[in-house]
Amino acid sequence: MNKNETKELLERVARGETSVEAALLALKDAPFRDIGFAKIDGHRALRCGAAEIVYGASKTKEQIAEIAAEMLGSGQKTVLITRMSPDAAEFVSSRLPLDYNEAARAGIAGERPAPDGRGKIVIATGGTSDIPVAEEAAVTAQALGNEVTRLYDVGVSGLHRLLAHTDEIMTASAIIAIAGMEGALASVVGGLADCPVIAVPTSVGYGASFGGVSALLSMLNSCASGVSVVNIDNGFGAAYCASMINHIGVI
C-alpha cells in the first residue's frame, strides 16, 4: 500500500465509506510477508514513497518469479526487477506479465505506471557504451512513474552534440549524467542546469580508468556545485534519487 492508497483509505474512513476496523486491518496486513527465503516489505511504499524493488543478481530465476508473484498477488501493481539475466527473464515471463529490457537487464512485472512526477528526468550519456547503465536508469525511472528523456552519446569529445539539447537540459526536474573514461560529462551538465544533477560513473574505459574509479573520482571532484554522485554503474540508484526529486510536493 503506497501513500496515495493509504490517503484514499483514510478519506474513505472520514466519509464513512469504510469502517475504522476495516481500515486498521488493511494497515496491519502489510508490514512484511515471510516466504521462507525472502521477507517481502509491504510497508516500503508507505515509508519511502516507492514499493520494494527486486534485485535479481545472485537470485535464482525461481526465487525471482516467486517474489514477484507474491508482490503482485498482494496488490502491488508494478514490480521492478533489476540485474536480471535474459534466462531469468524468460522464466519469469512464462509465469507473469513481464516487460523486459535486455540492455538494462531490468524488467517491469505487472503494470507500467503513468507518469505522475512534476516534470521530466533527463538521462544523458557520454557515449554509446554507457547505454546499458542509462537504460537501467530509464527503466527504473519509468517504473517509478516518471517521464524520461534520453540524450545518448553527447559526451565532451563532441560538445556541440550536448549543446544541441540545451532546452531539454534547462527544463528538466533532474538530470542523470552517465559517463566512463574521465567522467567529464557531469561537470559540463552541472554548469548548464538549474536542477540537481546525479552523476553515474561507468566502468567503460581503458586500463587506467580502473573499472570506473577514474570517472568516480572525477565526478566526486566536480567543480559544478549541483552534482552528486552514486556508485559505479549504479543507474538504478541514480534513477531512484531522481524520482524522489521529481515527486517532491506530489502526494
UniProtKB/TrEMBL annotation:
One of its GO terms (molecular function) is hydrolase activity. GO terms for biological process: 'de novo' IMP biosynthetic process. Transmembrane segments: none annotated. It holds the Pfam family AIRC. Residues 119-250 form the PurE domain. InterPro entries: P2CMN_synthase_LarB, PurE_dom. SMART domains: AIRC. SUPFAM superfamilies: N5-CAIR mutase (phosphoribosylaminoimidazole carboxylase, PurE). This is 1-(5-phosphoribosyl)-5-amino-4-imidazole-carboxylate carboxylase. It comes from Synergistes jonesii.
